[in-house]
Amino acid sequence: MEKIAVIGCGTMGHSIALSAAWAGYDVKMQGIDHADIDRGLENIQVKLQVLMQNGLIDEVAAQLIKDRIETTTSIEELAEGSTFIIEAVPENIELKKTIFKQLDSLCSVDVILASNTSALSPTEIASGTNHPERTVITHFWHPAHLIPLVEVVRGNKTSDLTIKRSLELMIKMNKKPIEVKKEAPGFVGNRLQFALLREAQHILEEGIASKEDIDAAVVYSIGRRLPVTGPILSADMGGLDVYKDISNYLYSHLSTTQEATPSMSELVNENKLGNKTGEGYYKWDASFSEEVNNAREKELIRYLKQDMGIEF
User: Using an 8 Å Cβ cutoff, are 263 and 205 in contact?
Assistant: First the structure.
């Protein structure tokens, strides 16, 4: 088994560590300081409680998961004995390059160095290392312990062996990895997500529908279908002749904006950032925030139970 280590215990780091421990791996989790680690462990406990409440694990399993997670504030200690290190620090390219250069000097050449970045270049992250062939992106989606997708992204010098070991580990962690064969901004998932968001913003700006009805159009149509058939398979099912004709008619009417829409930019300038500030496109009071977050978590758990073959 790979000996997994996670750098960072914030939003993504603690959830990735939980995923690894849940899959039966001993994992080291590194934080900036003891207060940072305590927050990470508290967040893991909250998530374990939810998993128990939903019948995904019992108390014995929860304790085993906690016991598998070792913590440290030292990158040197984290690197010792690890064979697969996942970096999950803020999306700052210089910070990531510094960490990877340090890891490159600490670790033997057969240790995989992976980044959880959602958009940054694996080639650039590895640019200061002597062994860029062992650098790869393993992009977990938030929340990492509930979302199966992990994008395994190849840099210009990433070796086939690195990709193979990364895909194998993600499968053993009960994830659904995809291989991104060459790096591209946004990889695959975010390119698709932001293409939809761009058109949603365009529809709102044009006054075609309200924000509530735009969201409802996704939730109650393609949102219901996409868990079974992605966009390319859906086109095959619907008939490529039909989709070709619609494409030829519709594409010229879709948004091609190269930057965020005025409505989003205005909200950001007013510090109306959504859930974290209490207002964005929607008003996020405590009850609305709890309702939406709980509903999303409940639905993700329902799908996870389905993946695991657990009866509802």
Answer: yes
Mean pLDDT on 194-214: 97
Distance CA 292, CA 274 (A): 12
Per-residue exposure over 73-97, b if at least 16 CB sit within 10 Å of its own CB, e if not:
eebeebbeebbbbbbbbeeeeeebb
End-to-end CA distance of the chain: 32
pLDDT band at 311 (very low <50, low <70, confident <90, very high): confident
Q: How far apart are CA 57 and CA 47, in angstroms?
A: 11
Omega within 30 of 0 (cis) for the link into 143: yes
The distance from CA 302 to its chain's CA centroid, rounded to whole angstroms, is 19
Question: Whose CA is closest to 22, among 308, 215, 312, 309?
Answer: 308
Cα–Cα dist 161/267, whole Å: 45
Phi, psi of 86 (to 5 degrees): -110, 120
CA angle 13, 165, 144 (to 5 degrees): 25
d(CA 168, CA 290): 36
Q: Do residues 118 and 191 make contact, with C-beta atoms less than 8 angstroms apart?
A: no
Could you tell me if residue 274 is left (phi over 0), alpha (psi between -120 and 50 degrees) or otherwise beta? left
The per-residue pLDDT for range 270-304, each reduced to its tens digit, is: 999 999 999 999 999 999 999 999 999 999 999 99
